[in-house]
């Protein structure tokens, strides 16, 4: 028996065109629903599965003790790729998918190492003994070293000094610095955290310790320590593999649910029919007024695939449901999803024509009935305007489709090599739906395709061009754009953040234009340029995640998000230096002897960014709901200050301090601030605890630039004696035209350093009793090598 997946969604009102999520839940101190996905490019290896299980089991115990007996991993699902052989112990996934996995196991991308790393969308010291050495000469795996020298006045070590920790330690903190040391089992706390360390932790979390941030999270606010000294149980594991057909069932339901919840407007009449050999009306037309109405329909989506496919019976049942609700089939729209073959679909062509309904078809898999395209064509499907350049990662199965409303235009299409396709090359639909298409044979040429449409009719008419294409090769990942909002509900005036990730494989794509189009229910649009500059709403610069605050509310209701990412003029490039990766430890000191680890592959500066071809991608980011906003037209007064400056840098140049940062806006990261407040002190705590009373820098000549611009400012500290080793701490605030003041920036330091001649630098002995370090990364417990 052939299993088939079929569902019809239908509605009678015109349709207008979330959140990045995880399935992990914390229940009674145990994390459930963790999904670890194996990349399809990884060769089949049973040992890998066992290694993952061992790693997670060990990590669960480690996490339990690190969180002071608060949490552990209760169950984990391992998603096996379909490129591996199917086995009876592999279960079918329900909602788990590779795209939403919490951990991905993959081969090292290119040749630049296998360091684990995390993607960071969100906003927000200890004593370790060791030796500082300079590598004088290395050959093979052997290096000659000598102790570092330091300046006796400043206490600073010489350039290219490498810290090598003692392998035997008593220090317990911090996991976020050097987890590889066996003694390190705890997070830094308020008592041990170094608030002066120039790291992302202090910048984004205002100097708070890792443990303070963890304890203020929702999970830990509602979780008490367990009485047991060890986790009550080892994690349980489920092995999941998407069978192709079952995966299509999930994808079909996923697409249908997304369409229902995030696309269909409130006020629409919506119903649903499921069918195999017979059809069943699951929901007659229902007025969508609230979330309950959506859920009543999604609750009836099919949970298993049965045998047979009768598309005609499904369509006729859809017509019956529409008529039963006292609505006309003429003008109604039907979304038909099916993966089954049906040799009798042509028997209902005439009924479809007579109905006047507009049918949009989605074929799931290669076995779907070939007549679906004809069915959709004969009912006048709508097209979306737009063209895209064809880059080297796509070009397979490429179609150019032209539609018109009155008379066929004159068409001229030219590929990047100059080959021309004329009107006669486009195959016109025989059912007179005013469309013509051209399928490019083989692989479409890489580069920019150009087209020209000439309207020969006396009257104006609507002309559209649609281009569709697929990935060129299953082994070459295309450039992909994904988008989501920071939250799915917003209450005025609180801002939300738009995120878009653009990547090829696991590498971020830089140097491109990324624009968000946010639209209200009544069609009002706001266009917002997204930035990957490490300022404002953006957490990390050059990580391929483009971000921006959204505050231009236009009344209450649902807002939809689309993101357009494109590259022009050969400006796009891949960043081969992965961000947020695990700390590399050069080696250890054991019994007074330095034992080095294998060197980590380094990316040379001239190879760090690889150019890629021009491209264009358009993606949906779902929708979000706004409440409490003033009614349109939305000209409400500013109630938000400029965004916090998060990329402030400082350095001495002779006796002057040079500052640089990215300009915030009048409202968060939009517009232009009115002025800046810069204060300095020789005490870090003065700025952190009493910023308003620290020494004020004269900024009368500093005129703020437009948000996103680079600010540079130079000043000479007054009333201070400056000599070798002099250290200043600096922080900045921005003020807008409404006199609203931003948060104080992170605190930076500038040190006056005059290198001494080589012979005047005192060499340290080979024994170093203690070196204070406080470097904290971003949370990541897992390490997969």
TrEMBL record:
Superkingdom of origin: Eukaryota
GO CC aspect terms: plasma membrane
Domain VWFA: 234-377
A Pfam family this chain is assigned to: VWA
TM region positions: none
GO MF terms held by the record: intracellularly calcium-gated chloride channel activity
InterPro entries documented for this protein: CLCA_N, CLCR, Ig-like_fold, VWF_A, vWFA_dom_sf
PANTHER family to which the protein is assigned, alphabetical: CALCIUM-ACTIVATED CHLORIDE CHANNEL REGULATOR, CHLORIDE CHANNEL ACCESSORY 3B
Name of the protein in its database record: VWFA domain-containing protein
Native source species: Cervus elaphus hippelaphus
């Amino acid at each position: 028996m052939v299993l088939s997946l079929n569902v019809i969604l239908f509605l009678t009102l015109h349709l207008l065109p979330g959140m990045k999520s995880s399935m992990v839940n914390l229940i009674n101190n145990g994390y459930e629903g963790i999904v670890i996905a194996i990349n399809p490019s990884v060769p089949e290896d049973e040992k890998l599965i066992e290694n993952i299980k061992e790693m997670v089991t060990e990590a669960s115990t480690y996490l339990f003790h690190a969180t002071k007996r608060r949490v552990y991993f209760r169950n984990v699902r391992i998603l096996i790729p379909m490129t591996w052989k199917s086995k009876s112990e592999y279960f079918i996934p329900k909602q788990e998918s590779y795209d939403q996995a919490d951990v991905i196991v993959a081969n090292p991308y290119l040749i630049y190492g296998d360091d684990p790393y995390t993607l960071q969308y969100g906003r927000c010291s200890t004593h370790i003994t060791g030796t500082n050495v300079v590598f004088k000469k290395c050959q093979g795996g052997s290096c000659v070293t000598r102790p570092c020298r330091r300046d006796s006045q400043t206490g600073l070590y010489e350039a290219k000094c490498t810290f090598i920790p003692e392998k035997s330690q008593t220090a317990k903190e911090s996991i976020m610095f050097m987890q590889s040391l066996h003694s390190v089992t705890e997070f830094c706390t308020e008592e041990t955290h170094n608030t002066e360390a120039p790291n992302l932790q202090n910048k984004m979390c205002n100097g708070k310790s890792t443990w303070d941030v963890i304890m203020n999270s929702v999970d830990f606010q509602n979780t008490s320590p367990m009485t047991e000294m060890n986790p009550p149980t080892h994690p349980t594991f489920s092995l999941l593999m998407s069978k192709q057909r079952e995966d299509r069932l999930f994808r079909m339901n996923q697409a249908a649910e997304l369409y229902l919840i995030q696309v269909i407007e409130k006020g629409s009449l919506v119903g649903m029919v499921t069918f195999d050999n017979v059809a069943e009306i699951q929901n007659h037309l229902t007025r969508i007024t609230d979330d309950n109405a959506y859920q009543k329909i999604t609750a009836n989506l099919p949970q298993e695939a049965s045998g047979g496919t009768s598309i005609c019976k499904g369509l006729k049942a859809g017509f019956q449901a529409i008529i039963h609700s006292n609505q006309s089939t003429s003008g109604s729209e039907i979304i038909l999803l099916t993966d089954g073959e049906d040799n009798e679909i042509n028997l209902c062509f005439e009924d479809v024509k007579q109905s006047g309904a507009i049918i949009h078809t989605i074929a799931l898999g290669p076995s779907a009935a070939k007549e679906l395209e004809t069915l959709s064509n004969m009912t006048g499907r709508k097209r979306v305007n737009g063209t895209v350049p064809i880059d080297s990662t796509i070009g397979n199965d490429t179609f150019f489709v032209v539609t018109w409303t009155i008379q066929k235009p004159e068409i001229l299409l030219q590929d990047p090599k100059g080959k021309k396709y004329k009107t006669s090359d486009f195959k016109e639909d025989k059912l007179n739906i005013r469309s013509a298409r051209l399928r490019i044979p083989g692989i479409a040429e890489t580069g920019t395709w150009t087209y020209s449409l000439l309207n020969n009719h006396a009257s104006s008419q609507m002309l559209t061009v649609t281009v569709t294409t697929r990935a060129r090769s299953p082994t070459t990942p295309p450039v992909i754009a994904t988008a989501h909002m920071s939250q799915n509900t917003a209450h005025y005036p609180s801002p939300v953040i738009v995120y878009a990730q653009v990547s090829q494989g696991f590498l971020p794509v830089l140097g491109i234009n990324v624009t968000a189009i946010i639209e209200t229910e009544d069609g009002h649009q706001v266009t917002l340029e997204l930035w990957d500059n490490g300022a404002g709403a953006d957490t990390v610069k050059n990580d391929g995640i483009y971000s921006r605050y959204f505050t231009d509310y236009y009344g209450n209701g649902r807002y939809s998000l689309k993101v357009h990412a494109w590259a022009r003029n050969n400006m796009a490039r891949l960043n081969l230096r992965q961000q947020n990766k695990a700390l590399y430890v050069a080696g250890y000191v054991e019994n007074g002897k330095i034992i080095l680890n294998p060197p980590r592959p380094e990316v040379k500066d001239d190879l760090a960014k690889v150019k890629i071809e021009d491209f264009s991608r358009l993606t949906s980011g779902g929708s979000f709901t706004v409440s409490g906003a003033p009614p349109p037209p939305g000209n409400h007064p500013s109630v938000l200050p400029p965004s916090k400056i998060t990329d402030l840098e400082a350095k001495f140049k002779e006796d002057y301090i040079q500052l640089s940062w990215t300009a915030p806006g009048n409202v968060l990261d939009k517009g232009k601030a009115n002025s800046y407040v810069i204060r300095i002190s020789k005490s870090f705590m003065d700025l952190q605890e009493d910023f308003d009373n620290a020494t004020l820098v004269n900024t009368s000549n500093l005129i703020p630039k437009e948000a996103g611009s680079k600010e540079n400012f130079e000043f000479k500290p007054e009333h201070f004696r400056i000599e070798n080793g002099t250290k200043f701490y600096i922080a900045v605030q921005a003020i807008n035209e409404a006199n609203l003041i931003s948060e104080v920036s992170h605190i930076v330091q500038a040190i006056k350093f005059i290198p001494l001649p080589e012979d005047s630098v005192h060499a340290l002995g080979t024994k170093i009793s203690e070196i204070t370090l406080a470097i904290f990364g971003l949370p990541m417990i897992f390490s997969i090598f």
